[in-house]
Amino acid sequence: LDTSTPVLKMLLIDGGKLMYDRDANGLNLQAEYILIINGGSLEIGTEDERYTNDASITLHGNVRCTELPIYGCKTIGVRDGTLDLHGEFIPMTWTYLAQTAAIGDTDITLKNGVNWKPGSEIVVATTGGRASMGESEKKVIDSVSADGTVVTLTTPLKFEHLSIMQTFGSHDIETRAEVGLLSRNIKIKGSVNEQFVTEIPACEKPFVANEEATQSCFHGKFGEEIGTDEMGAIIFIHAKEVDKHLVTARISYTEFNEVGQAFRVGRYPIHFHINGNVTGSY
Q1: pTM for the full model?
Q2: What is the chain's alpha carbon radius of gyration, rounded to the nearest angstrom?
Q3: How far is the C-alpha of 282 from the C-alpha of 237, rounded, in Å?
Q4: Measuring CA to CA, which residue among 249, 238, 247 is closest to residue 86?
């Protein structure tokens, strides 16, 4: 594949191999269904030679789509063949804050040096109380210091994120916010059906982290989780015979967005379905 595609109705890889051109950057394969059969293969990089440019697969569909038997819709189905997705190696995918980050800070100091790139998205975890799950913050990197320990953000932090050590008797207890890299150069994503997108306001009263507490409302209690058709892309790996090693799926350093299909049985983002022994897949 050396060019991005329009939205294909069906991509059937019937034997042979479809591989992304390593010299092309930003390729995007778009389809409603992708099905691999008869020993076929879809490859974006390999274990030994990772793909280092940007690449995407975008799957299209909606809640009223016609489903393939077993494999569904908005899907990459592997029935007899191989799926290889291997993004650029990242030696440090997450670390801790080395210093407490205050409200309004745009620089955060990390415990370990990283090689993260400007424009990448990160998450800074909450260190608040039990009802502070909404204080984890997604941010975009503006720049990284030469030693990789200071990350400058494009927008300031809205909450404090702790990095402290306390001593209790002979025990030193560390409380440090985790900082994780969310971006990868290979992206598997589902299309977003804009007609279903709604902004749902958070509850007027804060969420109480107590299973017996009365909640003021459901929508938005953890933020804005609902407000789409919740019909994302899936990868469905299912061999026609069990324990015959007919399917292999190897996925590493790959980003998934808008995936999984709510209220549909077995429609997880990645589903190894009744294959028996799948040694060699991961």
Answers
A1: 0.91
A2: 22
A3: 11
A4: 249
